[in-house]
Amino acid sequence: MLKDMTQKELDELAQGLVNGLRLTDDELRELLSISEKDDLDKLYYVSRKVRDHFFGNKVFLYSFVYFSTYCKNKCSFCYYRTSNDIERYRLDTEEVRNICNALKGENIHMVDLTMGEDPYFHDNPERFVELVKLVKEEMGLPIMISPGVMDNDVLRELHENGANFLALYQETHDQDLYRKLRVGQSFQDRVKARSFARSIGYGVEDGILTGIGDGIESTIRSLRGMEESSPDMVRVMTFVPQEGTPLENTISQSSVSELKIISILRLMFPDRLIPASLDLEGIDGMVLRLNAGANVVTSIIPAESTLEGVVNYDRKHEERDRDPKSVIKRLGEMGMEPAEQADFNRIIEGLQCGA
Ligand code: SAM
Ligand code: MD0
Ligand code: SF4
Question: What is the Rg, in whole angstroms, of the alpha carbon atoms belonging to the chain?
Fold first, then answer.
């Protein structure tokens, strides 16, 4: 596959995938094994061809608001795990309002409200409902929530009060690996929460990590696992070892695997939302991820903001370089541009009818 393909055959493959061609496990195995630059470039080319069929040069931009970094869980990969002795914060209403004001007028399509599984909100979900309502009133934009696992009745109330998308990443659909990552957390609870959310009209994002003990077979299990629930958005992030965590001494992996998997996700989910997260390698990394077939830029944070990302490539940087204006400027240099808000709203409306 790909290696000996001519330009015409690559274009035919892209057209076939647009028309619904499904890759076999053996073909996924072959694609995941690619290492030669020429073959990688062919994979990225086919992926961009498929993406451009559905989205052209238009990109969606999500602003990231990590409103509480408290968490009761102990994910082995996460800086914010409960036992890590770090500075934590929980935004109050005024601070959330100020962030909304800083974001108003910025060219973003959705606000991503993320928290650790903070008992302050998890034990009193009304507080989270109020926060979603406030951001909806202030911004009038679609809202993604990334709260961890919440009960169905809470998800329903959040949706009724303005939450449009649920981001809840499985990390891996390989249950042996899952147990080592999301320590003490039910595999099925995450799967069921996404499925329930989808049934009541949320858009749903699933995601996996790479560079964390996943191999080709485990990655194929994850790709098929994501395919099963057919999420509206699918992501992959390179695991970045975090100080103070059990995996802090893991050798961090280059982004090649992530870029390959982004392209393979595009071939498997041709018309879905696939993010290039700024959290990993900032705007330079965004370029690579968009060229691999992504069509969303996430983890956008205003320049003067002191909010955390999740992986925070820029934690030790003097200043941040992942504000909307800097992102849009670089998109322009790539011949890409933000999509119209109406295009994104159409995706949201399509969800409402549970399509
Ligand atoms: N607490 C919520 C949860 O766990 O679903 C939201 C927090 S944030 C969105 C969590 C996600 O960030 C994880 O699901 C994981 O995919 C990603 N993440 C966390 N730590 C990471 C790390 N060290 N490297 C790469 N991705 C990481
Ligand atoms: C990102 N820092 O996109 C964000 C986060 C949560 N829904 C997204 C992982 O990289
Ligand atoms: Fe908590 Fe989410 Fe980090 Fe796990 S990934 S420790 S649930 S913030």
Answer: 19
What is the DSSP-derived secondary structure letter of residue 171? B
Whether the pTM exceeds 0.90: the reply is: yes
Helical axes 256-268 vs 37-55, angle rounded to 10°: 40
- Report DSSP letters for 90-138, one per residue: B--HHHHHHHHHHHTTS--SEEEEEE---HHHHSSHHHHHHHHHHHHHH
Q: Which helix (H) or strand (E) holds 266?
A: helix 256-268
Out of 66, 75, 120, give the residue to mutate to test ligand 3, the one with the largest number of ligand atoms within 8 Å of its CB.
Answer: 75
CB atoms within 10 A of CB 266: 28
Span of 74-88, 249-263, 269-283, 340-354 with lowest mean pLDDT: 340-354
Query: Can you tell me whether residue 205 is helix, strand or coil?
Result: strand
Burial code (b: 16+ CB inside 10 Å, e: under 16) for 61-79 equals bbbbbbbbbbbebbbbbbb
- pLDDT, mean over the chain: 96
d(CA 345, CA 347): 5
- Ligand 1 pocket test, candidate residues 255, 278, 281, 310, most atoms within 8 A of CB: 310
Instruction: Report whether 40 contacts 292 (CB < 8 A).
Output: no
The arithmetic mean of pLDDT across residues 336-347, rounded, is: 97
pLDDT, tens digit (0-9, with 9 covering 90-100), for 220-236? 999 999 999 999 999 99
Spatial separation of the C-alpha atoms in residues 91 and 119, rounded to whole Å = 14
